[in-house]
């Protein structure tokens, strides 16, 4: 993802919504599904490396019950993730890897974890 961001965005500006159609691999990373416990963004890319639509991917539901805030949520998710990963390198600490165990509450959240964040430039 960082290679794609470097080649398309570079380091001199923030990512904008106009960049979204050019960031197929990055969008594939954001959409991880099916088999969500396996990191495989290529499941969302066609044989030419372009983002493909997967009808089963409906995190905001469909029809009458579709989330009205889907467009805003997708926009915020794209801008947040791309700008964080364009500016910072995030690594796990090998002796303390994050867990896939969920904590239930008002929302589902991961267990607390530690990571290393370093400015890329």
UniProtKB/TrEMBL annotation:
Pfam families: p450 (PF00067). Keywords: Heme, Iron, Metal-binding, Monooxygenase, Oxidoreductase. One of its GO terms (molecular function) is oxidoreductase activity, acting on paired donors, with incorporation or reduction of molecular oxygen, reduced flavin or flavoprotein as one donor, and incorporation of one atom of oxygen. The keyword Methyltransferase does not apply. GO terms for cellular component: cytoplasm. The keyword Cytoplasm does not apply. Its cofactor is heme. Heme binds at residue 67. Belongs to the cytochrome P450 family. This is Cytochrome P450.
């Amino acid at each position: 993802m960082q290679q794609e961001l470097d080649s398309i965005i570079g380091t001199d500006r923030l990512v904008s919504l106009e960049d979204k159609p050019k960031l197929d691999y990055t969008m594939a990373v954001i959409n991880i599904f099916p088999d969500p416990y396996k990191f495989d963004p290529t499941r969302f890319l066609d044989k030419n490396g372009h983002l493909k639509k997967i009808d089963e991917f409906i995190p905001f539901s469909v029809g009458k019950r579709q989330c009205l805030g889907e467009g805003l949520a997708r926009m915020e998710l794209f801008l947040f993730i791309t700008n964080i990963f364009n500016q910072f390198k995030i690594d796990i600490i090998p002796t303390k890897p994050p867990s896939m165990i969920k904590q239930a509450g008002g929302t589902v959240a991961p267990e607390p974890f530690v990571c290393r964040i370093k400015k890329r430039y």
